[in-house]
Structures are given as C-alpha cells and as structure tokens.
Amino acid sequence: MRLVYEKSRAGRRAGRLPNPDVERVDVPAALRRQAPARLPELAEPDLVRHFTELSTRNFGIDTGFYPLGSCTMKHNPRANERVVNLPGFRDLHPYQEEDGSQGALEVMWRLQEILKEVTGLHEVTLQPAAGSQGELTGLLLIKALLDAAGERQRVEVLAPDTAHGTNPASVTMAGLELVDVKTDERGNVDVADLESKLSDRTAALMLTNPSTLGLFEEGITELTEAVHSAGGYCYYDGANLNAVCGISRPGDMGFDVVHINLHKTFSQPHGGGGPGGGPVAVRDELAPYLPVPVVARAGDRFVFDADRPASIGRVRGFGGPFGVFVRSYAFIRRYGPALREMSEVAVLNANYLMARLREAYDVPYERACMHEFVASARTLKKEQGITALDVAKRLMDYGFHPPTVYFPLVVPEALMIEPTETEAKETLDEFVDAMLAIAEEAKSSPDLLRAAPNSRPVRRLDEVRATKHPVLRYRFDDHPSSE
To answer: What is the mean pLDDT of the chain?
Structure first.
C-alpha cells in the first residue's frame, strides 16, 4: 500500500480519495514503520479507571485549600457554569451577526458599565485575554497618546521592586524602558526615590495596589500627583483588586489606566494557565486609542464600535473571551450592591491568618494587611536550616496547596499567603494548625521537612537539575516496548 499525505490546494476533503486537488507524495521508506506499533490492548473500563485514578492525584480548588498568594484561587460558584452553558451563550458563533447576538452584546456592555463604576474610569475594552495582555494594552495606549502629543522622548516606566514579573516584561514588549523604584521600611513605594527618578523621559508609573506585599500604599495620591506633575501617566495593575473592590477606586486615587483580572477578582477557573480575562479601563483622553471593536449601545441596540481611527488595533480575536464575561457578570450580579463584602471578607480572612501565624513565622511589616500577606521563614532557616521551600513542600503532606514562595524578592524566604473570601474559618484554622505543626517539626524533625513531600505520588524534584538539564522530548528508544 502506498503511504501518502494530502496537500490540498482547494481545502482537504476528508475521506474522498482519490482527489484531483490533492498532491500525492510518497513518504520516504526510512520514515515508514517496519512493524506494527506495540500498543496495549485494554478494555474500556480499565482505561477509564486508569485516567480517573490519575485525575485524583491532581490538586485544585475543588479538592482543597489553595492559598496561592497573588493568584487569588477562590471558589468558582457552580451557578456561573450553569449560566455560561445556557444554549444562547454556549452555542453562539463568533461570527454571528449583531442582530443575532444582542443578548451576548448586552452582557458585555453591562459588564463594561460595571467595570467603569468599579474602577472610577470612563471607558473599557474587554478584549485582553489575561492580566498580562491587559498590561501590554494599557502601556500601548499610554504610548500612543504620548506619541500623538509629540512626546516620543517619554519612554521610561517607573515600577517598584515588588512588582509582578509581568510588569517589566510588558514594559519591554511595549518598547519602553523600566526604571526600578525602591520599597521603604514600611513596605510602601519610596516616595523620595520615585521623585528622584521622574524626568521629561517619564512615560508612566506602573503600580500594583495593594502591593504584592499585601499592603495598601499609604501615600497613593502623593505618588500619582508626583507622576502627573512630571507629565507622566499612572497605570494601575489591578491584579489585587479583590482587596478594594467596592471600597476604593483606582480612578479616585489618580490612576489613568487600570487592568482588571476578571478570573481572579470576579471568579473564573484559571488553574493551569487559563482561561482568563484582562479588561482595561481608561480615562477619557485615552479612550480614542482603545482596541477595536468596543461594545457600544446605539439606542435600543448593542453594536461593535470600530470607528476609532486612532485605535492601537486589535489585541485579541473577536470581542474577547466571552465565557469569562458571562461567569464574571453572573458573579457580580449575585453580590449586587453588597459587592464590597467580597473584599471585606477577603481582608478579614488574611488578617486573621497573619495574626495567628505571627507566633511561628516572621511578618516583616507591622501593619494590617489587605487580601494577602507575606510571612517569612528566615528565622527557621537561620536557626534550623529550614527554608520556605521546605515549609511549602511539607504543607502538601497536610493536604494543602503551598503558598507562593520566594516572592516578592524584597522579603527573604517569603511565603505569600492569600485565603480569599470564599474559605470558611474552619478551613483557615486547619491551615494554621498545619503551619504551626510544621514550625514545630522544623525544630524536632528537620530532616522530615527537607525530604517532603513524603506522602504524595511525586516526591520532591531536583528543580536545579531540571532547569539545567531539561528533558524536552520523549525518547522512543528508551521505551521497553520499542524493541
């Protein structure tokens, strides 16, 4: 039998060989299998049980507490999934004409209106598919406005040394230059250091508030006023909006651009890298540059508005990640006017954990935290040789996902903990008990921690070796059945 592949000039016609539009090309003999593949023969129940058992080894928010600082891994209400699977939403095609998608467009428009109110700004684009893409979009908007104003020399973006790693990456991708700003002894941006770095080259300040230290910037308006006085703009990384939503608004603090992580603040299953949504809200003067199209209301109809000649262009296909919008809109509507309770409970939970863990772990800043806080294992490392990584790995034996470790970089042996508002006090107490037990084990059984996790299907990996000598492909000749 001749082995061929199809290379169609008019589009593949599956199952219709011979086809005059298909070019038939012999597969070289050296690439042909000489013997049938040795594949196992399994009954369907055996196969299903195998993969079901593998799935039980995964950890997720539905199986346990996930205190991953800065990632806001909160419970995602099942009601959201029922809503997003309504046939009118689920079966809608991206190319559906406007008249046939008025319900979907109305949801998007109403979500935009809510985000305008939440941020205190004037217009919103829903296009960006994640916070990182929202960052890039926001910086491109600022750059477009500066270029239009003839201020192309403004290429410097100031960002604190506690910034998310995506911030400097976004600055570079936007063709701008990063200027690092120090953190002071109270965990705030060092105002004096920031002011010393302002100049006629300043394009923007890029700031997360509350910061990755879990602290609200005490001089927030002083920072934004200083940047505006120097002719720059202020960008608000909304990754931590879960702490202030309904309580304070970035626009009122003096910010010109905000991105919102819908998948973090307003619920969305996003473990494993997706899906997500990163809408961007802006002041009036930046609105002409928003990506097209923007969902707009025209009388009783909703339309895609693409009439923006100064637009930076699309940053994503279609109108954005629609399923994310439906889930987030449903989440917000269930709270209604009481949306601020979401943030208040998140802040309460974080302060409760911080207060209870002070006895065993260092807390570098003597202040009330917001939705998350950073503890440190530096004393454990100094006295028992136990690191933050050891603590994190041992937590897995207690049935908890580890918190974020070694970030922000300004805190040695950092443990970044975020409980969110969706966890019960009983769960928080169980987590505290585990953390306190681990601190005691560091004194009595340090080798137990250094070997952890001890009860998981996969033991501790040699991460240094994996980084230096990664296995990037499967080697068939190593498989016993390849003989």
So the answer is: 91
